[in-house]
Every structure is written in C-alpha cells, then in structure tokens.
Amino acid sequence: MTFIGSPRILITGAQGFVGRYLVARLLELLPPNGELILLDSHRAESQLRCRNLLADITDAVRVDEIVKTEQPTHLIHLAGIAAVTAATADVRLAWAVNFAGTQNLALAVAAFAPACRFVFCSSAEVYGASFVDGKRLDETALLQPINAYGAAKAAADIMIGQMARNGLKAIRLRPVNHTGPGQSVQFVVPAFAQQIVRIERGEYAPKISVGDLSTARDFLDVRDVVEAYARTLTMFDDIDNGCAINIASGNVHLVRNILDELLALSPIKIEIAVDPARLRNSDTPVVRCDAALARRILQWQPMHAWQDTLRTVLDFWRAQK
C-alpha cells in the first residue's frame, strides 16, 4: 500500500479527532517527495512534510483560493459537525458545514483541480430509518436519515455521487460509530470513561448517570477507520468512480454492555443510575452495516480488539490532569 508519484494530500478537519490519527498514518505511507496540506479552522503545530492552512469550509471564496493555489492530487474531507447532538442543537450550522461546506470543496475541485481525487467521509447515519428491522445494511440500502446530522450528510453524499457521474473523481465512505483516545465527551464511550475516571479520583460519588442503554451500535476503533481511509487514498484509481463503501465491523455492541465492560476495567465498584433527563427515544435501536464491499475492494477489516479500544479510552482519561 503506497502512493504513486508526488502526492499532495489536502486533509480537511486535520486537527480533529479522526484527522490527527489520519495525519499520523499518512505520514507513515507518504513517499519522501509527498506532502500533506492540513486544512482546519484553527492553527496547529508544524510537522515535517505538513503545511497548515487556516480556512472555514463554509467560505466558498477561501476554499476556491486554496484548491486553485495548492492543486492537491488528493483531498479527503473530514471536517464537519461530528456529533448528532451538536447537529440537533444547531441545525442551521450542521447544514452550513456538513452540506454547504462539502459542496464548496467539491465545486472547487471540479472547477480548479479536476484531476484531484476526492474522498468524502460520509456516515452510516445516512441510512437512518432503514435500520428499523435490525438487519445488516449494504450500500444499496435506502438513505432515510432521521436527524439533522444524518440528513446533511445524506444530502452531501447524494451530491457527491451525482457530481461523480458528471466527472468529479470521488469516492464516498460511510463509517459506523468509531472511538478512541482523544474523542470528545459528546460521544458515548468517552462520556462513560470520563465519568468513571472522575469517580476513581474521588471527584464524584461512585454512581454513574446514564440515559438509554438499550440501543445497539456497530463500533470501530478509530485506527481501523483511519486504515480504511488510507487504503482508499492509496487505491483510489483502482476503485469505481463514485463508489459508496461502508466501513463497519458487521457486529453490534449493546450500549449497556459497553458500560459494563468499562466498569469492569475500574477497581472501583460503581452504581449505574438512569437519569430521566438523559433518556431519549431512539428510532434506530440497532445500527448494523454490511462491510463486504470494504473487505473486497480495500482488502480491509478491523484489526483492533474492542476490549483493547475501551482500555485505551479509559487510560487516556486517566492520563488527563
């Protein structure tokens, strides 16, 4: 798995949770004459073979300028409002960033760097209500988003597919939930882990407040997701243009079991208390995707054991001051 020629890879959201892991992985794969162009809305520390650019992807003029000037050979689009709860809290922002920001990037590539290979990181949330019967969904499943995050991602996903039919070099990846050290507590695994660590430190009573634990989700380690992204970039020219690919394990974890596994890793006996304020009805009690296409096309499969992933998240919070 390697890049051909002198790749100039533009990464949006490069300083985000997934972006930091992807940058590290691509630096391992990058040839000596390659370069990463890290695009984000805030400044980051300089790294060898990386250049940092500041931009808001909702600014179409700035996006046009960057693509025209930089002439990337590849662009992987990670930037966005990443949490369903955050998108629900500010629907206008979710659409402005997750749809319009994606549109700005795709139009800029089509106009100013048509040879650039565009990888759009969509989401399994685009399937929404199609998960209702609990079956594994493949990429032909109907897109029926049930929240603002999924809707904006689905609209962008459809747009990229349409633009690929009209000449844009693009691939759409639809990852399931993923976690790892450094993820925001807006997400369930780090939210549990942070509470457990605060209890271990004596900051809270030995009782963890939770919402609905009955849902089941396909989860991946962020490093496995990043490996799928890296493979897509290196193998892009061998994949059908416009292709949509699920990135998933095909298995599910009950949220209650995730909490129990984290609690088992703690030396403290902790009580579970359901907080009515945290309870929300779920229209998708089970989220499960079929990743046969990723296995066949990308020769990819998850490599990190779930128990190890949970342990790394818990240890990350233990290391925080």
What does this structure look like?
The strands form four sheets. The chain has a seven-stranded parallel beta sheet with strand order 3-2-1-4-5-6-11, sandwiched between helices. Strands 12-9-14 form a three-stranded mixed beta sheet. Strands 7-10 form a two-stranded parallel sheet. It has a domain at 8-179 and 221-250 and 288-303: 3-Layer(aba) Sandwich (Rossmann fold), CATH 3.40.50. The two termini are 39 Å apart. The protein is an alpha/beta fold and 321 residues long. Helix 1 packs across helix 7. It is built from ten helices and 14 strands. The model has no long low-confidence stretch (mean pLDDT 95). 40% of the residues lie in helices and 17% in strands. It has helices at residues 17-29, 60-70, 84-89, 91-112, 148-165, 188-200, 222-235, 255-264, 292-298, 306-319; strands at 8-12, 35-40, 50-54, 74-77, 117-121, 170-175, 177-179, 207-210, 216-217, 219-221, 244-247, 253-254, 271-274, 286-287.
Helicity range: 25-40%
β content, as a range?
15-25%
CATH class of the domain at 8-179 and 221-250 and 288-303 equals Alpha Beta
Order of helices and strands: EHEEHEHHEHEEHEEEHEEHEEHH
CATH architecture identity of the domain at 8-179 and 221-250 and 288-303: 3-Layer(aba) Sandwich
DSSP strand count: 14
CATH topology of the domain at 8-179 and 221-250 and 288-303, which one?
Answer: Rossmann fold
What ranges have pLDDT less than 50 throughout 5 or more consecutive residues? none
Question: Tally the helices: what do you get?
Answer: 10
Largest sheet: 7 strands, parallel
Based on secondary structure, the structural category is alpha/beta
Mean pLDDT value: 95
Question: Quaternary state, please?
Answer: single chain
| Name of the CATH superfamily of the domain at 8-179 and 221-250 and 288-303 | NAD(P)-binding Rossmann-like Domain
First-residue to last-residue Cα separation: 39 Å
**Cα-atom Rg, whole angstroms?**
20 Å
How are the strands ordered across the major sheet?
3-2-1-4-5-6-11
Categorize the overall geometry: globular
